[in-house]
Amino acid sequence: MPRISTHTLRKKAQDGEKIVMVTCYDATFARLVDAAGVDAILIGDSLGMVIQGHEHTIPVTLDDVIYHCRAVARGCARPHLVGDLPFGTYQASTDDALRSAARLLKEGCVQSVKLEGGEAVTESVYRMTQAGIPVMGHLGLTPQSVHQFGGYRVQGRTTSAAERLLAEARALQDAGAFSLVLEGVPADLAERVTDTLDIPTIGIGAGPACDGQVLVLYDLLGLDDRFNPKFLKKFDNLQERVVDAVSRFGREVRTGDFPTAHHSH
Ligand code: KIV
Q1: Which residue of 210, 214, 215 sits with most ligand 1 atoms within 8 Å of its CB, as the best mutation to test the pocket?
Q2: Domain map (residue ranges) of the chain
């Protein structure tokens, strides 16, 4: 079965079918989310926090993302794969952006790339799409700008900020973006953007009107009890289940109940 393409994602949105995307970073989970029927996997720079233990996404390198893209690509054959361009790999020039995006496709084996920002990146989006690289935009609470925002704050709350975001969304579409992530914006603004654009919007903390939704897999599985933002629904409590399973393993090792003859050669 061929991988889901940008055209299929767009068609789904046109047909009123919601797009389901998750962020994941390795082959084992990629296989499982594929079995669960997701449409797209984002190999996000959130790996800086989730996998590497940083406070922000800023330290993540292009090599880090490529490493995880390759792992995810080996783990699943059907979902569309989006590789995230990390901070500093596309902002300096359109040449940088093009080179970094090309590496994600060539070495990371993804089918498209995502980058954060509006007007500042539209020229790069145009050049990448002209070069045959599908681009997903990302507006709103763009985590690579955390220091400029002074924290992880909902964006687009004032009338002028909302109008600016709407204009940037249009500019990204005009530059050739095939889709747009809306993160941390009021639900009514996300609805306006979604109604205005022809390309699908994918929301995270952006209300129900978007054409699709994305969550980080580790978050939706409930693997971190310290992370409880308002937008997050935990569909399981794996943190408790993992601690319980490993505790039982430890107990049985210590008591000698594991391994038994059954688990021995
Ligand atoms: O890096 C990431 O996982 C993301 C999503 C949360 C949109 O950018």
Answers
A1: 214
A2: 6-234, 237-265
